[in-house]
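@channel anyone free to eyeball this complex?
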Amino acid sequence: MTDAPILCVTGLCKSFGAVVAARDISVDVAAGEVVGIIGANGAGKTVFVNMITGYLKPSRGTITFAGTDITGIRPCDAAHIGVCRSFQTSQVFMTMSVLDNLLIATAIASKGRTSLLRPLRDDARITQCEAILNRYGIREYRDRVASTLSQGASKLLDIAMAGVSEPRVLLLDEPTSGVSVEEKYDIMDVVISASRRQGTAVLLIEHDMEIVERYADRVLAFDQGEKICDAPPRQVLADPRVRALIVGPDDADDSTARPRETTDA
Amino acid sequence: MRSLTGDRTVRGVLIGFTLLAIAGFFLPAWIVNNVMFGLARGLAVLGLLVLLRTGLVSFGHALYFGLGAYSVALLEQLAGVTELVPRLAGAVVVAGGLGWILGFVLRRYRGIFFAMLSLAFSMALYGILVKTESLGSTDGFSVSPTVLFGWSPETRHVFLAMVAAVCAFAAIVVQVYLASALGHLTTAVRDNEIRVEYLGYPVARSIHTTYVLSAMLAGAAGGIMAMALGQVDPDSMVNWTVSGELVFITIMAGAGNVAAPFIGGVVFEFIRTYAFELAPHAWQLIVGATLLAIIFFLPNGLWSLIEKPWKKLEKRRD
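replying in thread with the prediction:
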């Protein structure tokens, strides 16, 4: 991790009226790094991600991506230059088949100028999407309408769509929330191995400490809009403040604890 | 090109319109007229179908229909143009141009707000036309017969063939558009705008493109109507009742296929003719009852009468 950071966030502030959702947050993320973001509900995790992808404009501070300032960029432009995201509740095209969902994502991600004018169900594009379906293990749902998918499969589709353009920064907003215990590791294995291969930096918002500990290289802990900790997972989860505010004091030091669904329910 | 001729809808449209153009030479004049008016309305409804794919309904598409019609009339008044191609081009360019300008405002609205704002714009044009003497006021203008490359055909039948050709061309263009990734993007926008935006495509641009295409189709439709009718006036071209008829036909026809609007347009024209003959003072009642019946029994419109047997046939073949 000695390369120049792909994403630099400096002095980011955001307030909604009297509520401070982000207070002077500074973070550097290196290419290929997996950074977990933890915090209680309302700690400002999603606001932080929303500012990076341009959905919210920060009140102060700058966001730099690969050396260029992208503060306040439109979400579609952020996606275009390689900052993509998945959503806490999966955002897919409900009336379309799984394949069509991916075909749309592929068509938009393609840098070719005529890509959008070619037929959607172009043979080359279908082959490309079937490879993605295989990689994410959702090949069996190829022709199912997205609204009929299970939450886990829908989540995978959502993440697959975010990753189609091989982004350089991928923000995952609770990829395992609402997903069964059996499915969650499968999802994370697929996503993280794909990112590692492409050298994608991943920002991972999670309530599940098991997941964070297993996949993140580094963890940021948020509380009331402030970054209270930034260190390797073990160190963060052992931090007394983090234990008191987020993890819960009783079993925080038990790193091999049974799977927990949420820690702040 | 191979994929184009392989498209079943494209083949169907080509065969259907060719047969219609030939049949025109053997049909009585009143039927030819009705078919022509039906096709013209169908072309405008095709524009509404494109909008419907992105989840938007316009209650003011007579704005572009009327604009197309008045472009034809004014081109003749001001420049003496009576050729088919410049007439149509004028109608399409003027309607598309205004659609592009208004698109900047309308692309920010959805649902009922979009529908009512469209209506407001169309009634503004209606108001301007009615009050302006130099634009024909309530009387409008008459439109002289259309000339095709210097040749002025004597009969209505030839004109029907020209209209059929234009409609077939438009239907194929729309079919290719809807099959493209850009066309599918309209449905994607209807389903989930946030996702489209985060995939890297601006939703506003998608809606704007669709809106301009829709306006151009309605403009061409109005131009054809003006030529077929030989007359333009605000009440039969721009009034809100015209927009209402277009939405009516859209629901009646169904949005399943690019051929549906034309079938719907022609059927509507005949229903209206017979209803008027049957009950000159209550013909709207018959037209309304027909729509109710269609909504109850054919929720996907008249098109399902063609689609369902076709699918059954295909299943049997497999």
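from a first look: Confidence is low (pLDDT under 50) at residues 252-265 of chain A.
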